[in-house]
Amino acid sequence: MGIDLSEAEAANELMRLARQIAHHNRLYHAEDAPEISDADYDALVRRNAAIEAAFPHLVRDDSPSRLVGHEVAASPLSKVTHEVRMMSLDNAFSDADVEDFVARVRRYLNLPEDAEVAMTAEDKIDGLSCSLRYEHGQLVRAATRGDGQVGEDVTANVATIADIPQVLKPLPFRGGVGMGHLADCPHPPTPSPQGEGGIPDVFEVRGEVYMSKQDFAELNARQEAAGGKIFANPRNAAAGSLRQKDPGVTASRPLRFLAHGWGAASAVPEATQFAMMQRIAAWGIPVSPLLARCSDAAQLLQHYRSIEHARAELPFDIDGVVYKVDRLDWQERLGFVAKAPRWAIAHKFPAERAETTLEAIDIQVGRTGKLTPVGRLTPVTVGGVVVSNVTLHNRDEIARLGVRPGDRVVIQRAGDVIPQVVENLTRESPRDPYHFPDHCPECQSEAVAEEGEVDVRCTGGLICPAQRTERLKHFVSRAALDIEGLGEKTIDEFFALGWLESPADIFRLRKRRSEILGREGWKEKSVDNLLAAIEAKRAPDAARLLFGLGIRHVGAVTARDLLKRFVTLEELRHASTSGEAEALTSIDGVGPAVVEALGDFFHEPHNIAVWEDLLSEVTPPPYVVETKDSAMAGKTVVFTGALETMSRDEAKAQAERLGARAAGSVSAKTDLVVAGPGAGSKLKKAAELGIEVIDEAAWAAIVKAAG
Ligand SMILES: [Zn+2]
């Protein structure tokens, strides 16, 4: 993927991607309600990685590439910091990948070609990762994976799962206890040399909470009868059932548990993965009956085939086979790279396919205005799951497949939440292709794809019902108008009441003072504070107002650059609609994408109505670039490490207000480095160059002194 972006565009896009990916992570992992396919999600992650590779100094602290799974979303469950981080696994998709993995391990350990590298192999269950902490054999805490470092406390919920013992069984160890036997397993379980089931003082068992296929089907049937939430698949059902505020709900859901490893442990009483898993089984915690020990890649692949063969008959969904280096001293030497261990890999099953009829193509409008075509199918079973919808991704994908309603198609499901079409079996020609809509089905605004982009987007951002609440939340957010007390919940509440249709309505809320007071949770003081905070923004900063409108490609920095040049919003509007693009593109950091987005925005009558309505309520003064007489004027500042009281964006904005420039990397031109905890190479470089380094508190003092 070629990256043809200016630095400002790259920074903007990375910000947008971080937000988008976090949003989808939350929907997938925390709310169990994904709204895009895995393929679309992967495309976002790849785009982020490609931009980061081209602009390494712009990598954000909250970069999606630094996270495992989702960050813990706002949740009624309290948070738990994992003593030992919960990692994710790298994936292998082919036999060659597996052979490479074994060869890599051998190289890393500097073993001779003929040395045996024993590995365990077990089915990878599609569940929700969970860590169970036992102290002196007693279950004291259960936590979800969360972002790998911080999860959610589900101790009370887990207590309702019959598979999970409250107290470990200190049985005399007799090898193979609790283990099934697989006929073609190359190495049937062997008794451990250690003969007792001694339990360490602290031992965290890690594994998956899951739901069987049958229990899942029955749960959905009950949910449907009761008008409740229907789950997309057993994984989502298990996650949704475990992450309940009320353990009573969890208790009513048929959850199971399967251990696959461990985290923090005061002692590990075995020398191999295999023996340790047998011991965990002997303590009374279920371990996969398909766990085997193999001595080379060929045996791993043989075991993989046997599990793949048994897959359809298994009572639960699995999506691959996990291999782990058996010797624990080797695991320790191999260690971790980024967020995955070097000593393990997940060998994924190929996607499952089925043939059916595409009955219709519906267009869904996402919160960002993206028009996503969804294929409605004659329901068909793929890999044990009934599929009736597929994502068609975008306009280009429909053209590539040449699909129209009525066509026979091959669909594929690869552990995907939303399956996709991989082949069109009806390809007679000539015929008229499917016409992708050029208007938004929700608000009838024009829908356009920008130059070089495949996604078609609704241009009616501020009036489009699909986008409105998100736009309003953006409008009042800290980097935009920054209206204190008008949070996401309040926006949702007022929107549902029909009080907030567009940004201008925020400034008309004062007429609803008594109505707001009549609502639960509002007191005189909180209402007055909210209305005062709104009134305080009657003369808002023009650049923040422009940024708040959420015009594509017009980020906070671009908004300021535009206003520096045009001074008033009316001048900017005039330049954007007069067709003289040079006036705009002559500004540093303003490229054709910005010009096109502004043109599209002001081309849409709905947007102009919203714009004029808003400007009848607020009067942003002409934009003046403050050149404060501060000690910082003209200086270059670099922020590094974690900032605790503000975001990186806020810190940069402060620097700009002081007349300083915020740079991404340390060089001889840098005047000052503000370093928080965890600052690394930039701090080192600053020391080498003899550049002044201060902490966040000292920076705050400078900002305060400048007023
Ligand atoms: Zn729309």
CATH topology of the largest domain: D-amino Acid Aminotransferase, Chain A, domain 1
Helix content percent band: 25-40%
- How many strands? 24
Bound molecules: zinc ion
Q: What is the overall silhouette? A: globular
State Rg: 29 Å
SS summary, helix count: 25
Any low-confidence stretches, pLDDT <50, length ≥5? 68-74, 175-196
How is the topology of this model organized?
Elements: H1 7-30, H2 38-54, E1 79-81, E2 91-92, H3 95-108, E3 119-125, E4 128-135, E5 138-144, E6 150-152, H4 155-158, E7 202-210, H5 213-225, H6 234-242, H7 247-251, E8 256-265, H8 273-282, E9 292-294, H9 297-310, E10 318-325, H10 328-334, E11 336-337, E12 340-341, E13 344-348, E14 352-365, E15 371-382, E16 385-391, H11 395-401, E17 408-413, E18 420-424, E19 447-449, E20 456-458, H12 468-476, H13 488-496, H14 503-506, H15 513-517, H16 524-535, H17 542-548, H18 556-566, H19 569-577, H20 581-585, H21 592-603, H22 605-617, E21 636-640, H23 648-657, E22 661-663, E23 672-675, H24 681-689, E24 692-694, H25 696-705
Parallel strand pairs: 2-13, 21-22, 21-23, 23-24
Antiparallel strand pairs: 1-6, 3-9, 3-10, 4-5, 4-7, 7-8, 10-13, 11-12, 14-15, 14-17, 15-16, 17-18, 19-20
Helix pairs in contact: 1-2, 3-9, 17-18
